[in-house]
Amino acid sequence: AQKVTQAQTEISVVEKEDVTLDCVYETRDTTYYLFWYKQPPSGELVFLIRRNSFDEQNEISGRYSWNFQKSTSSFNFTITASQVVDSAVYFCALSEDVMIKAAGNKLTFGGGTRVLVKP
Amino acid sequence: DTEVTQTPKHLVMGMTNKKSLKCEQHMGHRAMYWYKQKAKKPPELMFVYSYEKLSINESVPSRFSPECPNSSLLNLHLHALQPEDSALYLCASSQAGQSRTGELFFGEGSRLTVL
């Protein structure tokens, strides 16, 4: 069974500070996808990034960066120079090999981390 | 702006009412989803439709009845709900088949209150 753990329930920072969100996952599949979603107060879950299990290259996209380490089953996410608009709940999520499963993408979410960025 | 549109945004209903939540997407996705989210909890999968056929039902009570009239529309029919069914109901869509890249695209949700 899949499991995603976000140990941090809430993080509070001052604007322009960096924020790193931790995510640890468990899966028996050798091929899987990892995601980060942002949920602002409006309720919509906004897709941020996706990483395939076979690609451990870490990247930077604007103020977002991520650190994927298969050896420790972690997929951490960093917001650089945080802004007030970054205040939201951030979810890490995992899905099984989407190339094999025909029934649809069964996404497993972590418990979420609430980020509060103060001006 | 989200490309998955959900209506209504807010719904209040009594336990004897019958109502429906609607979802529409125009991204050409062939997989659509209903998730339920309680306050301060992660979303929980309810149903998945793949190519307009129900492919996953996460043991959801029969008072929730999904329907996929075509590849762009997804409905959730509600009947005889309980107060504990009050939650944010999120619709999502994704690619299906061999072209899948995995990510789901969500709507803003329908906030349901059952009195």
Report on this structure.
Chain A is built from no helices and 12 strands. By secondary structure, chain A is an all-beta fold. Chain A starts with a strand and ends with a strand. The model of chain A has no long low-confidence stretch (mean pLDDT 90). Chain B is mainly β. Helices cover 0% and strands 56% of the residues of chain B. Chain B has no helices and 11 strands. In chain B, the strands form 2 sheets. In chain B, strands 2, 4, 5, 6, 9, 10 and 11 form a 7-stranded mixed β-sheet that branches. Chain B has a 4-stranded antiparallel β-sheet with strand order 1-3-8-7, with no helix packed on it. Chain B is globular and about 40 Å long. The model of chain B has no long low-confidence stretch (mean pLDDT 92). Chains A and B meet through strand 5 and strand 6 of A and strand 5, strand 9 and strand 10 of B.
Protein topology:
The complex is a heterodimer of chains A (119) and B (115).
Chain A (H helix, E strand, L loop, with lengths): L2 E3 L4 E5 L4 E3 L2 E3 L5 E8 L6 E7 L7 E2 L2 E6 L4 E6 L8 E9 L10 E3 L3 E6 L1
Chain B lengths: L3 E4 L2 E4 L4 E8 L5 E7 L6 E7 L2 E5 L6 E7 L2 E7 L7 E8 L10 E2 L3 E5 L1
Parallel strand pairs in B: 2-11
Antiparallel strand pairs in B: 1-3, 3-8, 4-5, 4-9, 5-6, 7-8, 9-10, 9-11
Name its key features.
heterodimer, A: 119 residues, four-stranded antiparallel beta sheet, B: mainly beta, seven-stranded mixed beta sheet, 11 strands
Give the total of beta strands of chain B: 11
Shape of chain B: globular
Individual helix count of chain A: 0
Structural class of chain B: mainly beta
Task: Please state the average pLDDT score of chain B.
Answer: 92
The DSSP helix count of chain B reads 0
Q: Spans of chain A with pLDDT under 50 lasting ≥5 residues?
A: none
Structural class of the secondary elements of chain A? mainly beta
Helix content of chain A: under 10%
How much β-strand is present in the residues of chain B? over 45%
Beta fraction of chain A: over 45%
The major β-sheet of chain A equals:
6 strands, mixed
Largest sheet of chain B: 7 strands, mixed
Order of helices and strands of chain B: EEEEEEEEEEE
What is the β-strand count of chain A?
12
